[in-house]
Write a structure and sequence with these properties.
Layout (H helix, E strand, L loop, with lengths): L1 H30 L15 E3 L5 E4 L7 E2 L9 H11 L11 H14 L9 H10 L5 H17 L2 H11 L6 E2 L1 H9 L8 H8 L14 H17 L5 H9 L6
Parallel strand pairs: 3-4
Antiparallel strand pairs: 1-2
Helix pairs in contact: 2-8, 2-9, 4-5, 4-6, 7-8, 8-9, 9-10
């Protein structure tokens, strides 16, 4: 019967540990509220418009960046779908942290014996950009915590809009509107499927995939995005083939 006594002790030890962890989590949740002010920290590029609303003159922001925030309604649906497909396909189904992505990442990292996947959701990526942290395990834990808090304060569409307006797209470009205007001389709402897929692939490594300097790499990444969209049923096989074959001109 000694084993039964040990089993009961283990059960109570685990139960106490879980309760203590839960109490600690709740305490930190309320003692360290989400810093909402940081969501408004990114500088906006000053613009001069004509009577019709067209931009006549644009200047870099005080942080030397191009950022032209727009609403989701002012973005092409393609760039929204492409971003979700390649970065966080369960974005609308999780609460800031995707447990399935975490399990997949752990499995991939163990098999590869190195870090090959981080399981970061769009929510977590936004929190990382908000604080400017390096990609470490400690940062991941903080980002996960902040992402859970963020989902209690903002809707999924609001979080998505924040991400698409501050994510890096190469050089000093931040947000899809600045990227669309710089690379394709058009507004984000007018992006075609192949253009949107190319832009959506840039945040993973903005310098490596910057299309005005490394178009071949950017096209390879674009193909990965299109593959994800096809796999998730966002586009048809014909759209997939046409988008991959479409010649892109970067200005």
């Amino acid at each position: 019967m000694a084993w039964l006594i040990h089993l009961k002790r283990l059960f109570w030890a685990v139960r106490v540990f879980v309760l203590l962890c839960g109490a600690a989590f709740v305490s930190v949740w309320y003692l360290c509220p989400f810093p909402q002010a940081r969501l408004a920290q990114w500088a906006v590029s000053p613009m001069v418009h004509d009577a019709t609303g067209q931009i006549m003159l644009g200047l870099v922001s005080q942080e030397d960046t191009w950022r032209l925030p727009v609403t989701l309604e002012a973005m092409s649906p393609w760039v929204i779908q492409a971003t979700i497909a390649v970065e966080d396909k369960r974005f609308f189904r999780h609460s800031g942290v995707d447990p399935w992505a975490v399990i997949r990442a752990v499995k991939q990292n163990v098999l590869a014996r190195k870090v090959v996947s981080g399981a970061s959701t769009l929510d977590m990526q936004l929190c990382r950009m908000m604080d400017g942290r390096d990609r470490t395990l400690k940062s991941k834990l903080i980002e996960s915590f902040r992402a859970l808090q963020l989902n209690q304060l903002k809707s999924k569409n609001e979080i998505l809009a924040f991400y698409l307006n501050v994510a890096p797209y190469g050089g000093n470009l931040h947000g899809v509107e600045a990227a669309a205007r710089s690379y394709f001389l058009k507004q984000a709402k007018d992006l075609t499927l192949p253009e949107a897929a190319l832009i959506a692939g840039l945040p993973q490594s903005p310098t490596r995939y910057r299309p005005d300097k490394h178009l071949a790499r950017a096209r390879q990444r674009q193909h990965v995005v299109l593959d994800c969209m096809l796999e998730q049923g966002m586009i048809s096989s014909q759209q997939w083939a046409e988008a991959k074959a479409f010649p892109l001109v970067i200005d």
